[in-house]
Each structure stands twice: as structure tokens, then as C-alpha cells.
């Protein structure tokens, strides 16, 4: 079992930055791919970024490449999403998730989400 708790969301102006954190419970954190997803009102949840267990490989949605950076600190059981050059269309609830399989699928564990609002 993995429990995930996100933090760091808030209100920011367009062009600004935020860093989201996701703290995980458990002793096997480094065995999991960790991903960030977001869901805007009335839309389906979408993939944002993912990182391998070691942190050596990262994956991004085209819409955030060059603006967002995912990283992890396995000693702290925490994954981060540094978001820069934010746009109003980035407004959504952001969720972190853990997958034992791959960055593409198998996300069995989810956090409760944190709201990010970008004003124009």
C-alpha cells in the first residue's frame, strides 16, 4: 500500500511558478514510477509528467515540455512538480500517482489532489 499526499497548489498569475510536492508513505517508494496528472472542470484527467523509480528517466506531455520539471527525492519519499511559465489553461486539480509497472499505465495509488489556479 502507498498513501500519497499532495501539497503546494494555489493561485498564481499567468507567467508565474509553483512547485507541487507529493509525499508518499511506505518503504518501497523507489520501486514505483511516479506521475502527475491534472483534471480541469468538465474534462477528463490527463497525464502531465512521470519519473522512473531512480529518477533517471522523465516523461512529459507535449503541453508542458520546457515549462514543467518532475523530480523525486527517494530519501524523503517525495516527488515534485516544478511548474513555470504557467498559463490559464494549466488551471486544474493536480494529482500524483504511483505505478509499479511503467510510466504509461498501472497507476494504482492516487493522492487526493491539489488545486492550481492560474489567473490571466
Tell me about this structure.
The protein has strands at residues 4-7, 10-13, 18-24, 33-39, 46-51, 58-60, 68-73, 78-83, 92-99, 109-110, 114-119. Strands 2, 4, 5, 6, 9, 10 and 11 form a seven-stranded mixed β-sheet that branches. A four-stranded antiparallel β-sheet has the order 1-3-8-7, with no helix packed on it. With 120 residues, it is mostly beta strands. It is 0% helix and 49% strand. It has no helices and eleven strands. The relative contact order is 0.31. Strand 7 and strand 8 form a beta hairpin. The protein is globular and about 40 Å long.
DSSP strand content:
over 45%
Query: Runs with pLDDT <50, length 5+?
Result: none
What sort of overall outline do the alpha carbons produce when their principal axes are compared? globular
Order of helical and strand elements: EEEEEEEEEEE
Quaternary state, please? single chain
Number of separate helices: 0
What does the secondary structure layout of this molecule look like, with pairings?
Blueprint: E1 4-7, E2 10-13, E3 18-24, E4 33-39, E5 46-51, E6 58-60, E7 68-73, E8 78-83, E9 92-99, E10 109-110, E11 114-119
In short:
By secondary structure, the protein is mainly beta. It has strands spanning 4-7, 10-13, 18-24, 33-39, 46-51, 58-60, 68-73, 78-83, 92-99, 109-110, 114-119. 33% of the residues are buried.
Amino acid at each position: 500500500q502507498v498513501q500519497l499526499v499532495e501539497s503546494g497548489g494555489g493561485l498564481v498569475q499567468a507567467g508565474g511558478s509553483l512547485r507541487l510536492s507529493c509525499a508518499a508513505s511506505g518503504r518501497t517508494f523507489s520501486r514505483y514510477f511516479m506521475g502527475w496528472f491534472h483534471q480541469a472542470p468538465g474534462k477528463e484527467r490527463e497525464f502531465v509528467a512521470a519519473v522512473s523509480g531512480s529518477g533517471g528517466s522523465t516523461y512529459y506531455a507535449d503541453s508542458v515540455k520546457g515549462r514543467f520539471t518532475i523530480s523525486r527525492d527517494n530519501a524523503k519519499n517525495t516527488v515534485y512538480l516544478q511548474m513555470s511559465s504557467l498559463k490559464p489553461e494549466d488551471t486544474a486539480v493536480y494529482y500524483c500517482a504511483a505505478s509499479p509497472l511503467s510510466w504509461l499505465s498501472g497507476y494504482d495509488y492516487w493522492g487526493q489532489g491539489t488545486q492550481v489556479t492560474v489567473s490571466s
